[in-house]
UniProtKB/TrEMBL annotation:
Binding positions for (3R)-3-methyl-D-ornithine per the UniProt entry: 286, 308
Lineage, highest ranks first: Bacteria, Pseudomonadati, Bacteroidota, Bacteroidia, Bacteroidales
Cofactor note: Binds 1 [4Fe-4S] cluster. The cluster is coordinated with 3 cysteines and an exchangeable S-adenosyl-L-methionine.
Membrane-spanning segments: none
Residues the record lists as binding S-adenosyl-L-methionine: 68, 175
Protein name (record): Menaquinone via futalosine step 3
Residues involved in [4Fe-4S] cluster binding: 62, 66, 69
A GO molecular-function descriptor: 4 iron, 4 sulfur cluster binding
The entry's keywords: 4Fe-4S, Iron, Iron-sulfur, Metal-binding, S-adenosyl-L-methionine
Domain of life per record: Bacteria
Annotated CDD domains: Radical_SAM
Length: 356
């Protein structure tokens, strides 16, 4: 193990076999200590960053039908379905602005009737009314969906969205980047190769991207590590954000896959992510899904960012995760864990909280 620890601390890219051995066999306490050492090499100051943004869902209508998702519904379910109106965006943006935020995380279902023109009009309208607003919007599966509807390539969709106001592309919808796993849990979503291709295209166009991972369902330890190595080999992500699948009430739970919060498994995953991704500067702790206490422990084994306070969230709460943090409690929690909180923007630049 010592040889593997030395190699990852030098920033070496491990092979799949070595990475898997490290993940499976290293004692948790050692793995956490080495990951924290690497975090302090990359970020020598004991600063933990956080952000104020607002999650807004465009629509809950989705043709994908992922088995882990309680949020979506079909177009025919008219009693449940919605498309967020401009008036609702205005209210949400003004509430966020009053709290010091300047970015919307816009995500939602893959609606069969909302094509790229819809999102172009939406982004343009938002930017016209709120020129200061940053749009961290859609994700690889949605870009793939829009490209398929418009019968054009990813570069064209991304170029049109960027011209309309897209600032960055979130890393959502990665789950586990393995086609067999995706066939089992989200057969209607883009394949692993398509997710990678959207991200590669976005990065080649200079659009900032993050990457995620949802583990703890049907995947094997090897598939987790392969996911990490795909993210590493693609590189260029501003941050990596892993979390555990939350299964309450989902179709996947009914099929026998309960998921949930196993803190030890989460800390091992955070630590191995830090160690296997030397080319990705930021590892984000997911307090929303894993709980604040687990997220604070993650700050001691590789994570250096706590993500955003949550003004609104509809997707993981639909699967039984109800954690909340406002700005004050976020800063208190980071201090209680022994770090100095620092507000950041989407590019992980430190920023001042604007007086409102
Ligand atoms: S996770 Fe996203 S893509 Fe999958 S069904 Fe839910 S809304 Fe649709």
């Amino acid at each position: 193990m010592q040889n593997l620890y030395n190699r990852v601390l030098r920033g070496e890219f491990l092979s799949i076999e070595d990475a898997l051995r490290l993940y499976i066999s290293a004692p948790l306490a050692e793995l956490m200590a080495v990951a924290h050492r690497m975090r302090m090499q990359i970020h020598p100051q004991k600063i933990v960053t956080w952000q104020i943004d607002r999650n807004v869902n465009t629509t809950n209508v989705c043709v994908s039908g992922c088995k882990f998702c309680n949020f979506h519904c079909r177009l025919a379910e008219t009693d449940k379905s919605y498309v967020t109106t401009m008036e609702q965006y205005r209210t949400k943006i003004e509430e966020m602005y009053a709290l010091g935020g300047e970015q919307l995380l816009i995500q939602g279902g893959m609606h069969p009737h909302l094509g790229v023109e819809y999102y172009e009009d939406l982004f343009r309208a938002l930017k016209k009314e709120y020129p200061w607003l940053k749009l961290n919007a859609l994700g690889a599966p949605e870009v793939h969906h829009l490209a398929r509807m418009a019968k054009c390539d990813y570069a064209e969709i991304l170029a049109r969205l960027r011209r309309a106001g897209l600032d960055s592309l979130p890393g959502a919808g990665a789950e586990i980047l393995d086609n067999e796993v995706r066939r089992r849990i989200s057969p209607g979503k883009c394949s692993a190769d398509e997710w990678v291709e959207v991200m590669r295209t976005a990065q080649s166009m200079g659009i900032p991207t993050t990457a995620t991972m949802m583990y703890g369902h049907v995947e094997t330890p090897r598939q987790r590590i392969e996911h990490l190595l795909i993210i590493r080999d693609l590189g260029n992500f501003t941050a990596f954000i892993p979390w555990a699948y939350q299964g309450r009430g989902t179709r996947l739970e009914k099929e026998g896959c309960a998921g949930g919060n196993n803190a030890a498994e989460y800390l091992r995953l955070i630590a191995i992510s830090r160690l296997l991704l030397p080319n990705i500067r930021n590892i984000q702790a997911s307090w929303l899904t894993m709980g604040v206490q687990s997220a604070l422990m993650a700050l001691h084994c590789g994570a250096n960012d706590m993500g955003s306070i949550m003004i609104e969230e509809n997707v993981v709460s639909a699967a039984g995760s109800f954690n909340t943090l406002d700005s004050e409690r976020m800063e208190q929690a980071i201090r209680a864990a022994g770090f100095t909180p620092a507000l950041r923007d989407q590019q992980y630049n430190l920023s001042e909280r604007l007086p409102r």
